[in-house]
Amino acid sequence: MKFFIDTANLEQIKEAQAMGILDGVTTNPSLMAKEGISGEENVINHYKAICEIVEGDVSAEVISTDYEGMIKEGEILAALHPQIVVKVPVTENGIKAIKYLSSKNIRTNCTLIFSAGQALLAAKAGATYVSPFIGRLDDNSTDGVELIKQIVDFFNYYGFETEVLAASIRHTMHIIKCLEAGADVATCPLSAIKGLLKHPLTDIGLAQFLADHAKAAKK
Ligand code: E4P
Predict the structure, then answer these.
(1) Mean pLDDT along residues 101-115
(2) Which H or E run contains 135?
(3) Whose C-alpha lies nearest to ligand 1, atom 9?
(4) Is residue 219 over pLDDT 90?
(5) pLDDT by residue (tens digit) across 26-62?
(6) This prediction's pTM
(7) How far is the CA of 42 from the centre of ligand 1 (A)?
(8) Taking all residues of the chain, what is their mean pLDDT, rounded to a whole number?
(9) DSSP state, residue 39
(10) 95 close to 122: Cβ distance less than 8 angstroms
(11) Who contacts 161 (Cβ-Cβ below 8 Å, separation ≥6)?
C-alpha cells in the first residue's frame, strides 16, 4: 500500500519525506487555504514546491465546476510538473472532464467519493485514482472502510485499473483497516503515519536494552 501525506504544509511534507516512506501528497482547496496559500501564482508555486520535495504523485485540485473550466485548469495544472495528478470532484462535469483529461494522458484523482456508484463512473471515465472519504462517512454513521472494501472488490472483479486511494483518514487505526481492506493508497495526516510507530512494548523493550547495555559497560 502506498502512503501519501494529506497536507499542503511543506514542513510536514519534508518530515514525512525524510522518513523515507512517502509515496506522494494529496492537497485540496481547504488544505491550501489552511496554509494561507491563495491567488493563482502562489497556488502554482506551492504545487511546484511540493513536487520539489517528494518523488511521487502530487494531487492538485481544480476549482472550476464547469466542464470547460475544469479541463482548462486541469491542463494548466498537469503542465506544471510530471508528478501532478489533477484532482476533480465526482460531478457530471467532473466525470466528463476526467474522460477528456485521461484521453490526453493526464492523470486524475476523482475526489469526494461517498458511494460505489460514484467510484464506478470515475473508473469508467478513466480516473487514475478514486478517493473515497472514509472519515467523513464515519462522521455520518456510515462505515467508511466498508466502502473501501466494496470498491476494491468490484474493481478487482471487473479488472478496473483505477487505484483506490483511501482519503479523509483521521487516525492510525484507519490506516490499518484500509490495509486490511486492500486499498492501493492511504493518504494520511502526519500524526496518523507517526502513530504506526507507537507501541508501549517497543519503548519498554528499548529502555531495557539500553539499561542492560549500560550495566554491562560498568562491569
Ligand atoms: C484528500 O484527498 C481529501 O481531500 C482529504 O483526505 C479530506 O480529508 P478531511 O475529510 O479530513 O477533510
Answers:
(1) 98
(2) helix 134-139
(3) 168
(4) no
(5) 999 999 999 999 999 999 999 999 999 999 999 999 9
(6) 0.96
(7) 21
(8) 98
(9) S
(10) yes
(11) none
Q: Residues near ligand 1 with C-beta < 6 Å?
A: 6, 26, 28, 111, 131, 133, 135-136, 167-168, 187
CA–CA distance, 216 with 121 (Å, rounded to integer): 65
Place of cell 480516473: 127
Please tell me the distance between residue 6's alpha carbon and the centre of ligand 1 in angstroms: 7
How far does the centroid of ligand 1 lie from the alpha carbon of residue 18, in Å?
Answer: 23
Question: How far does residue 133's CA lie from ligand 1's centre (Å)?
Answer: 6
User: What is the C-alpha to C-alpha distance for residues 87 and 62, in angstroms, rounded to an integer?
Assistant: 6
Q: Is 87 a catalytic residue?
A: yes
Q: Which of 61, 5, 6, 7 is nearest to 29 (CA)?
A: 61
Query: What does R_g of the chain's alpha carbons equal in angstroms?
Result: 20
Give the whole-angstrom CA distance, residue 116 versus residue 132: 9
Exactly one of 2, 34, 72, 87 is catalytic; which is it?
A: 87
- For atom 7 of ligand 1, the residue with the nearest CA is 168
Q: One-letter amino acid identity for 159?
A: G
Amino acid at residue number 178: C
Q: Answer whether residue 162 shows pLDDT above 90.
A: yes
pLDDT per position as a tens digit, 192-202 = 999 999 999 99
Nearest CA to ligand 1 atom 12: 168
Grid cell locating 86: 489533477
Between CA 7 and CA 17 the distance in angstroms is 13
The model's pLDDT over 72-96, given as tens digits with 9 standing for 90+, comes to 999 999 999 999 999 999 999 999 9
